[in-house]
UniProtKB/TrEMBL annotation, chain A:
Residues 579-748 form the W2 domain. Keywords: Cytoplasm, Initiation factor, Protein biosynthesis. Component of the translation initiation factor 2B (eIF2B) complex which is a heterodecamer of two sets of five different subunits: alpha, beta, gamma, delta and epsilon. Subunits alpha, beta and delta comprise a regulatory subcomplex and subunits epsilon and gamma comprise a catalytic subcomplex. Within the complex, the hexameric regulatory complex resides at the center, with the two heterodimeric catalytic subcomplexes bound on opposite sides. This is Translation initiation factor eIF2B subunit epsilon. It is found in: Cytoplasm, Cytosol. The keyword Protein biosynthesis applies. One of its GO terms (molecular function) is translation initiation factor activity. It comes from the Eukaryota. Residues 549-575 are annotated as: Disordered. GO terms for cellular component: cytosol; eukaryotic translation initiation factor 2B complex.
From TrEMBL, chain B:
This is Translation initiation factor eIF2B subunit beta. InterPro entries: eIF2B_beta_subunit (IPR051855), IF-2B-related (IPR000649), IF_2B-like_C (IPR042529), NagB/RpiA_transferase-like (IPR037171). The lineage of its organism: Eukaryota, Viridiplantae, Streptophyta, Embryophyta, Tracheophyta. Residues 141-171 are annotated as: Disordered. It comes from Rhododendron griersonianum. Signal peptide: none annotated.
Length: 748, 423
């Protein structure tokens, strides 16, 4: 791979090339979450059947039909299973549709995945060389697999939308504004007014969108859902003529991204979650002025399976044919023939059904399943090769493949995985999840919202943050054989069986997972079972109590990376904690800076470190600029000097060395004014030695182009009305300001 | 051969994903695909027709299974099978003539004599069958003999006198294939010109000052109406919009662009409009002209949704109901056959806006089951008694005559396209 010099000509060429390259997609075959535990301990989420077809098939079928020609499937948890499935599937030898798998074992988040994709195929160059973003970009364009705009999607997303429109829109915007890096697909879906959650079981989502440009201005999915209120920063309205705020939009998790998105993830190494960190990060911090836009779809379908509730909802949407043509009776993946009969009953071939059995509406029955006498099945999905005995009642449940249900069982709103045996008379109460090859004993009642697995529940000694990611891998390492061989388990580890018997009844095998107290609410909201009526009433009543709880709601986020909405940080006047924060922040920045000076750290690294400090203290670039300038001046003072002229020389040399770092935090006039104010404050308080030099330093800052004329004039205008003692420095720099004014008039 | 496999797979995938829209396009592409299957099929020395038929059946089975709703695929497969059988028959008949010729000319040809009796037995039987069979309707109508296979084969038989035996054999094996491909080409030609063929008859059916009612958008109907317009007929068209896809709007636009007086009505206004027009306008004649998805062997029509209502309205007000159907839409099956999949349910998003109704489909609260169910069938079945006339490329026919027409185009043995289990 030759390294091209970043001339303008080359970049023009590459822009033209963008139009011709085949459409590519990155498919994350891992959700980096644990909502589907314990099932996902044994099988990756993307291979779980949805109306008897693995989820990833829906995603791939859609990508293929939408004209995507190259898909990079990123496999992490259970990568072997995903790759095996894909290699043996029809997708691998399709003309005009190529699939490449990327395997990783240590990625713990979508951010890691994207960074890996970026790094694996990019010539690694030092930060010095890559100081200009476009050089980096061209290098990257040259070596990388992703050549242009790409579709970013996870393997549990269903859609039937056409990509042509959104791609055109995205390209059109990119031509006008190269900062439009991402287009997010949204669609209308009303949240429930009672539970403040969407029909997919996710929390109510608030978005602020510019109605003219469709630019996304605000995104909050972890709002205080019980109050149903959000607070918007007034800055949002500053330069927009209007802003529309929605709570009835659903995020489809289909993004059209420009290549910069990948490099953004690499630059901001603490970005983990696509929405919580990346989207909010871009919106709140205004990194390099990058913008996100939205595209709303109306007639087509798109949704992501996030939890058991969305699994239930989306299954029902498929049965209701909203996802047409990706419905069971259309063989979009070469699946076996299923016929749609009256009242939305999908039946595959080879079903043996007793004449007294009643199969209700909206059911899917898989290939080769037998159903006994007087059995009633309604609103359910039954997989291939299941054996259902007599007098069984199945309602709203999802029974996967090769499940045996003996006589007289009752299943309501449950998920039953492959190979499970339910002995006669057992009952699965609403919300139960029975993982692979579990055996439920006779007459045993699996309580509501409980989970049964052959694997023991991981103990929660770590903090939640670590648990979220780390256990995905340990789950595989510890129990490598279980998902492949069932016979082994029944033969060996009789001890475990004995232990398990007590948990799921006589003759049963499996561990009953306990539900933590705090998780129970979430459990209810995201279970396959509908929320019971009495619970609904309770939820409304308990609204007040929960408001306090919701502070802990964010416990699934890594605390260091959590981004609060902007509004909070601005109310710092009366918030002592926030003030403490700023002092700590300034100290940290100073320490970083001093270390940089003494240890000769590269500028880019300093920027990176300050960036991470900014994120962890939840600050804006205004604060960074102030703190940095403060530490620079302090350095100048602390350098030995005998006279004010020497001090001035010290200051100019420090400014000269570090102006690039400072400059990177001065994207607009506001930050520059902040620097002046900070300087003023210093001169008054901590560094009085500078007070006589104020005008000189100001002039110097103007000369080295750190401060713009406009900033200084704005500052002067602001100070004009201030009290007399505050005007000391304004008077001192009167001549300079006058000169500036005259200069600008001359220009006019 | 690998080429063909790729082609077939490609086509199967397209059919599966419902990527080919419209029965004409489907029919044409199916015929083209089958032509390449035939041309790449290696021919054995004996039972060539059998080999071809097997090959076509194998491909046909896959194609039909890929999209059982699109009946045109099956129709074309059966047509091609029929063509092979016919060509084989006519070659065999010609061979009897050739046999006589060669028997007279070269007496020293012992091997040939061994070969012929086998062939001639079948040929004689076939010839006997063909004499028993009444002349085909097409032959009567067009008054021209079928593709001139007989003279061609006899002339080449004459040529072969001077050639070596092997050359004779290859030419013979090549001949069946050649003839079949010729015939399939003709079929493709027929399919692509079916609109014009049907439209040619427009003037005979549309009269001055008549009011035509149609529903949805059918290309055949559009061409038909435009052909009448070109012939200086002045008439008006009522277009029922054809919910939920509102293809009628598209048709109205095109008709207006061609200078036709057009009125758009809602589907539910059909009954009212048919009666109203007869009352208000003095002697105006009303005529319903519609397109079809498929015409079944009993004369029943599988048509876009809403057509049964139109047919009933027409019956009620004694208005003629005319169905236009290209020859590829004739299906040799009866609607009660288990192979026939009569309908396809499309996405409910044509009817409802998902966002507006999303709160009705929240399964999180309440019983967790469907209270809202949206059905969006694509097709309607119009029974034969409601149809007055079919207009195909070959002319107008009664519904009760359909079975006869179908007998001309299809062999009864091919009705179920399934390979014989390999012995």
């Amino acid at each position: 791979m030759g390294v091209k010099k970043g001339t303008t000509r080359v970049s023009e060429d590459t822009v033209e090339e963008l139009a011709r390259v085949p459409l590519q997609a990155i498919l994350l075959a891992d959700s980096f979450a644990q909502k589907f535990r314990p099932i996902t301990l044994e099988r990756p989420k993307v291979l779980l059947p949805l109306a008897n077809i693995p989820m990833i098939d829906y995603t791939l079928a859609w990508l293929e039909s939408a004209g995507v020609e190259e898909v990079f499937v990123f496999c992490c948890a259970h990568s072997g299973q995903v790759i095996d499935y894909l290699t043996n599937s029809k997708w691998f030898n399709q003309p005009n549709f190529s699939i490449k798998t990327i395997e990783s074992h240590n990625s713990v988040s979508a951010g890691d995945a994207l960074r890996l994709i970026y790094e694996q195929h990019v010539v690694k160059i030092s930060f010095e060389q890559a100081s200009l973003a476009y050089v980096y970009w061209i290098l990257w364009m040259d070596a990388a697999m992703i050549h242009g705009d790409f579709v970013l999607i996870s393997g549990d997303t269903l859609s039937n939308m056409s990509l042509t429109h959104v791609l055109e829109e995205h390209k059109e915007r990119r031509k006008k504004d190269s900062n439009a890096v991402m287009t997010m697909v949204i669609r209308k879906s009303k949240p429930s007014p009672l539970t403040r959650q969407s029909r997919l079981g996710t929390d109510e989502l608030f978005m602020a969108i510019d109605p003219d440009t469709k630019q996304l201005l605000y995104y909050e999915d972890k709002a205080d859902h019980l109050k149903g209120t959000i607070s918007l920063d007034k800055m949002l309205l500053a330069d927009k003529s209007s802003v529309s705020v929605h709570n009835d939009k659903q995020d489809c998790y289909i993004d059209i991204c420009s290549p910069e998105v990948l490099s953004l993830f690499t630059d901001n190494f603490d970005y983990q979650h696509l929405r919580r960190h990346f989207v909010k990060g871009l919106l709140v911090d205004d990194i390099m002025g990058y913008k996100i836009f939205t595209h709303e779809i109306y007639s087509s379908y798109a949704a992501r399976i996030d939890n058991f509730r969305s699994y239930d909802t989306i299954s029902k949407d498929i049965i209701q044919r909203w996802t047409y043509p990706f419905v069971p009776d259309v063989q979009f993946t070469g699946n076996s023939t299923t016929k749609l009969e009256r009242l939305g009953m999908y039946r595959a071939s080879g079903i043996i059904q007793s004449s007294s059995a009643q199969i209700g509406p909206f059911t899917v029955i898989g290939n080769g399943t037998t159903i006994g006498d007087n059995t009633r099945i309604s609103n359910s999905v039954v997989g291939d090769g299941c054996k259902i005995g007599s007098n069984v009642s199945v309602e709203g449940s999802y029974i996967w493949h090769n499940v045996t249900i003996e006589d007289g069982c009752t299943l309501r709103h449950a998920i039953v995985c492959d190979g499970v045996i339910i002995k006669s008379g057992a009952v699965l109460e609403p919300g139960a999840v029975v993982s692979f090859k579990v055996r439920i004993g006779q007459q045993f009642v699996v309580p509501s919202y409980s989970k049964v697995s052959l694997l023991q529940q991981p103990t929660k000694q770590d903090s939640d943050e670590e648990l979220e990611y780390a256990d995905d891998s340990s789950g595989i390492v510890e129990f490598p054989s279980i998902n492949s061989t069932s016979a082994k388990l029944t033969s060996d580890s009789s001890e475990a069986q004995l232990l398990a018997i007590s948990e799921v009844g006589a003759g049963g095998v499996g561990y009953l997972w306990s539900v933590g107290e705090g998780d129970f609410e979430d459990e209810l909201r995201q279970s396959v079972a509908p929320i019971p009526a009495d619970k609904l009433a309770e939820i409304i009543q308990a609204a007040n109590d929960e408001m306090e709880m919701s502070a802990q709601d964010g416990n699934t986020l890594p605390p260091s990376g959590e981004l609060q909405p902007d509004s909070n940080s601005f109310n710092s006047e009366d918030n002592i904690e926030d003030r403490d924060d700023s002092i700590f922040f300034e100290k940290e920045v100073e320490a970083t800076f001093l270390r940089a000076v003494h240890e000769d750290v590269k500028e880019d690294h300093v920027i990176l470190e300050v960036n991470s400090l900014r994120l962890s203290y939840n600050k804006t670039s205004v604060d960074c600029a102030g703190a940095l300038f403060y530490s620079m001046m302090k350095l100048a003072i602390e350098t030995p000097h005998s006279s004010t002229s020497e001090l001035f020389e010290n200051a100019t040399s420090v400014i000269g060395t570090w102006k690039r770092v400072l400059k990177s935090y001065l994207p607009s006039i506001d930050e520059e004014i902040e620097v002046i104010l900070k300087f003023e404050e210093m001169c008054l308080e901590s560094a009085r030695e500078f007070s006589s030099l104020f005008a000189k330093v100001l002039h110097h800052l103007y000369d080295v182009e750190i401060l713009q004329e406009e900033a200084i004039l704005n500052w002067a205008a602001e100070k004009e009305g201030a009290d007399e003692p505050d005007k000391v420095f304004l008077k001192q720099s009167e001549i300079f300001i006058k000169w500036l004014n005259e200069a600008s008039e001359e220009e006019d | 051969m690998p080429d063909v496999h790729v082609l077939v797979n490609d086509f199967v995938v397209k059919l599966r994903k419902r990527k080919i829209e419209g029965s004409k396009a489907t029919a044409k592409q199916t015929a083209e695909l089958l032509r390449s299957v035939i041309s790449q099929q290696r021919m054995p020395h004996v039972n060539q027709a059998g080999a071809l038929i097997d090959a076509i059946k194998m491909v046909g089975e896959q194609l039909i299974a890929a999209n059982p709703v699109e009946l045109a695929v099956g129709n074309i497969v059966r047509r091609v099978l029929h063509i092979i059988r016919e060509e084989d028959l006519s070659l065999a008949t010609a061979a009897i003539g050739g046999l006589n010729l060669s028997a007279e000319s070269d007496e020293d040809d012992g091997v040939d004599r061994d070969d012929h009796p086998v062939l001639s037995a079948a040929a004689v039987a076939a010839a006997a069958r063909s004499t028993l069979r009444p002349p085909s309707l097409q032959a009567l109508l067009e008054d021209v003999p079928n593709p001139a296979t007989v003279p061609r084969s006899s002339s080449s038989g004459g040529d072969s006198e001077g050639k070596s035996k092997s050359a004779d054999k290859t030419s013979k094996s090549w001949k069946l294939k050649h003839n079949v491909i010729e015939a399939v080409n003709e079929l493709i030609q027929d399919i692509s010109t079916c609109h014009e063929q049907i439209a040619e008859q427009a003037v005979e059916h549309i009269h001055q000052n008549e009011v035509i009612l149609t529903l949805g958008n059918s290309r055949t109907v559009m061409e038909f109406l435009c052909a009448a317009k070109e012939k200086k007929r002045s008439f008006r068209v009522f277009v029922a919009e054809g919910a939920p896809r509102y293809q009628g709007h598209v048709l109205a636009k095109e008709l207006v662009a061609r200078g036709l007086q057009t009125t758009v009505i809602t589907d539910s206004a059909i009954f009212a409009m048919i009666s109203r027009v007869n009352m208000v306008h003095e002697p105006t004649y009303f005529l319903v002209i519609v397109g079809a998805h498929a015409v079944m062997a009993n004369g029943g029509v599988i048509a876009p949704i809403g057509l049964n209502m139109v047919a009933l309205a027409a019956k009620r007000h004694a208005v003629p109901f005319v169905v236009l159907a290209g020859i590829h839409k004739l299906c040799p099956l009866y609607p009660h056959n288990p192979e026939v999949l009569l309908n396809e349910l499309k996405s409910p998003s044509d009817l409802l806006d998902f966002g507006e109704f999303s709160d009705c489909m929240d399964f999180g609260s309440g019983a967790g089951s469907h209270l809202l169910h949206v059905v969006n069938p694509a097709f309607d079945y119009v029974p034969p008694k409601l149809v007055n006339l079919f207009i195909t490329d070959t002319g107008g026919h009664n519904p009760s005559y359909m079975y006869r027409l179908i007998a001309d185009y299809y062999s009864a043995v091919d009705l179920v396209v399934q390979r014989r289990p390999a012995s």
